[in-house]
Design goal:
By secondary structure, this protein is of the alpha/beta class. The chain contains 6 helices and 7 strands; from the N terminus they run H-H-E-H-E-H-E-E-H-E-H-E-E. A 7-stranded mixed β-sheet has the order 3-2-1-4-5-7-6, with helices on both faces. The chain binds S-adenosylmethionine.
């Protein structure tokens, strides 16, 4: 059964600890990219939409980036901020609906990078075109989305809602130059069910 989640429903998931997406540590693929210092460089402005517990946002901040995390759920951001404090780093947090950001001058063309993981698949599929439009407005010229697109296993229910390479290419390619590859460090339960997308704004 398909369940579309609003703010209250996401809060409830956090309240009940029903957060199976939480890897409890930075995503290994992103940590590898961070260590390589090619796609990510110090001082870059990075937006993490639907940041959740924020392990990736914190890893980016520790690597010297200016990180902005956005989540609709207060409890996600409470957890993120507590972890950032323990890790002695800073992440700027907004409790917002991601789709409202492009209307706010502060966020427009602010970001060098958008880090995507399990947010694209968490939103209702009919919002995917709006995701792309929002990303275009939030990224600087030549900015990029770097993300793992999951799950590609063709499941019929969500969230997480299934993604296909074909759909992603059709949605993003009018506005982005796409590089799609196999991840080198997928976590075991997601192995073979995700692809790495590096999408440069045209
Ligand atoms: C599946 S979780 C992914 C969390 C994190 N990216 C990760 O990989 O661990 C999806 C997150 O998106 C948030 N979310 C859902 N809809 C949102 C929206 N419209 N705007 C901002 N955040 C949203 C949820 O509260 C949740 O924290």
């Amino acid at each position: 059964m398909t369940v579309l989640l609003n703010r209250d429903a996401w809060e409830k998931r956090y309240e009940e600890g029903d957060t199976p997406w939480n890897l409890s540590s930075p995503t290994p693929e992103f940590q590898l990219l961070l260590d390589e210092k090619k796609l990510f460089q110090e001082k870059m402005e990075v937006l993490v939409p639907g940041a959740g517990h924020g392990h990736d946002a914190i890893a980016l901040a520790k690597a010297g980036m200016q990180v902005t995390a956005v989540d609709i759920a207060t409890q996600a951001l409470d957890s993120l901020l507590a972890s950032a404090f323990s890790e002695k780093t800073t992440v700027q947090c907004f409790r917002e609906n991601f789709f409202d950001l492009p209307n706010q001058g502060y966020h427009q063309e602010r970001y060098d990078r958008i880090l995507e993981y399990t947010f694209f698949c968490a939103i209702a599929p009919n919002l995917r075109a709006a995701y792309v439009e929002s990303a275009v407005k939030l990224l600087k010229p030549k900015g990029a989305i770097i993300g793992l697109f999951f799950p590609t296993d063709g499941r019929s229910d969500g969230p997480p809602f299934a993604v296909t390479r074909k759909e992603v290419e059709a949605l993003f390619s009018p506005h982005f130059v796409l590089e799609i590859s196999e991840p080198r460090r997928s976590v075991k339960p997601r192995m073979g069910k995700e692809f790495l997308g590096i999408f440069y704004k045209r």
